[in-house]
């Protein structure tokens, strides 16, 4: 692979080991990957999404060359855009082990900088909830459109009403498939918890999460079970705990917040806020005081929830909801 393919990518920041660390080759070890012995030495291959190759190579190949020099190994990377494995070879097993360890540190650091691509969602877009949401939107615009920042474009798309359990960064199809399989492993737990039946939910009331109701970025609809059960909360917490424990998801709260976004300044068409921080632009908050006062207990309606979905960000299926990469149904014969 030609290094100049990546010339325009990010500057290299890897500066190699400090002088006092140069003798650590014999001590560093890699316990997560198989290092094979070959006729010429040792070899280890690791799966890395192609979108991360550019960070490992660095501008004009600088990062890769420094890693190779510091660990006395050779690092082979597939061509740009080709999914495959990065292969490390070296004369000493300990050298290959150290190179793999440092590659994993780099990969983990750069992965955390990527925007999330998928999320675990509970769809709230059933017809009765969409109708309630459209009524809420109409009433808010009629009563509060004079309040700062309140305008039509910051309302959620009714087809995409949902509750987010947690977000994931999945950088190739293999990672999507692996997480889908992980989700499926919860099938028995979920059906046991729900009794194999949909959960009866109520969407009623609104809330915000920052300290100043006069400057709000997101307004949420509250979601709860109609009969006071805590099955939904248990389901949400169990799924998130599992994905967090495996390093697939970041924990945001001690318990999952059961709410669905109804207004968000990320949606605003105003050029001063488009992209939310993208290109250095800031979001324009809105004054939610009158909305909270007038519509604080607004009833969006009831629904039957029958699935947990692995949804793809920035996508739409034929119904207008996010494209589904994997799903679990609560009842054995139905998937909503």
TrEMBL record:
<dbReference type="InterPro" id="IPR004088">
    <property type="entry name" value="KH_dom_type_1"/>
</dbReference>
<protein>
    <recommendedName>
        <fullName>K Homology domain-containing protein</fullName>
    </recommendedName>
</protein>
<dbReference type="InterPro" id="IPR047538">
    <property type="entry name" value="KH-I_ASCC1"/>
</dbReference>
<dbReference type="GO" id="GO:0005634">
    <property type="term" value="C:nucleus"/>
</dbReference>
<dbReference type="InterPro" id="IPR036612">
    <property type="entry name" value="KH_dom_type_1_sf"/>
</dbReference>
<feature type="domain" description="K Homology">
    <location>
        <begin position="40"/>
        <end position="108"/>
    </location>
</feature>
<dbReference type="Pfam" id="PF00013">
    <property type="entry name" value="KH_1"/>
</dbReference>
<dbReference type="InterPro" id="IPR004087">
    <property type="entry name" value="KH_dom"/>
</dbReference>
<dbReference type="GO" id="GO:0006307">
    <property type="term" value="P:DNA alkylation repair"/>
</dbReference>
<dbReference type="GO" id="GO:0003723">
    <property type="term" value="F:RNA binding"/>
</dbReference>
<dbReference type="Pfam" id="PF10469">
    <property type="entry name" value="AKAP7_NLS"/>
</dbReference>
<dbReference type="GO" id="GO:0006355">
    <property type="term" value="P:regulation of DNA-templated transcription"/>
</dbReference>
<dbReference type="InterPro" id="IPR019510">
    <property type="entry name" value="AKAP7-like_phosphoesterase"/>
</dbReference>
<dbReference type="InterPro" id="IPR009210">
    <property type="entry name" value="ASCC1"/>
</dbReference>
<keyword id="KW-0694">RNA-binding</keyword>
């Amino acid at each position: 692979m030609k290094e100049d393919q990546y010339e325009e990518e990010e500057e290299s920041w890897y500066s190699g080991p400090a002088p006092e660390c140069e003798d650590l080759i014999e001590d560093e070890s890699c316990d997560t990957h198989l290092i094979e012995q070959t006729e010429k030495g040792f070899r280890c291959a690791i799966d890395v999404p192609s979108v991360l190759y550019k960070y490992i190579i660095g501008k004009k190949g600088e990062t890769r060359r420094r890693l190779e020099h510091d660990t006395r190994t050779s690092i082979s990377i597939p061509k740009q855009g080709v999914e495959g494995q990065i292969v490390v070879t070296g004369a000493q097993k300990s050298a290959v082990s150290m190179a793999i360890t440092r590659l994993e540190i780099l990969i983990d650091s750069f992965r955390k900088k990527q925007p999330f691509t998928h999320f675990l969602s509970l769809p709230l877009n059933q017809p009765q909830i969409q109708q309630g949401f459209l009524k809420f939107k109409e009433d808010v615009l009629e009563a509060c459109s004079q309040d700062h920042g309140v305008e039509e474009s910051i309302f959620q798309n009714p087809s995409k009403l949902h509750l987010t359990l947690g977000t994931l960064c999945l950088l190739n199809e293999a990672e999507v498939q692996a997480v889908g399989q992980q989700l499926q492993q919860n099938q028995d737990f979920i059906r046991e918890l729900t009794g194999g039946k949909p959960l009866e939910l109520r969407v009623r009331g609104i809330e915000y999460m920052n300290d100043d109701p006069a400057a709000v970025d997101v307004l949420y609809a509250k979601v709860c079970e109609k009969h006071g059960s805590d099955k939904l909360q248990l389901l949400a917490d169990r799924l998130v705990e599992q994905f967090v424990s495996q390093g697939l998801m970041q924990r945001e709260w001690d318990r999952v917040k059961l709410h669905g976004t109804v207004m968000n300044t990320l949606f605003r068409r105003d050029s001063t806020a488009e992209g939310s921080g993208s290109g250095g632009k800031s979001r324009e908050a809105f004054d939610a005081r009158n909305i909270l006062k007038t519509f604080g207990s607004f009833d969006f309606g009831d629904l039957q929830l029958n699935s947990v979905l692995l949804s793809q960000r920035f996508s739409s299926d034929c119904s207008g909801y996010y494209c589904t990469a994997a799903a679990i149904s609560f009842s054995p014969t139905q998937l909503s």
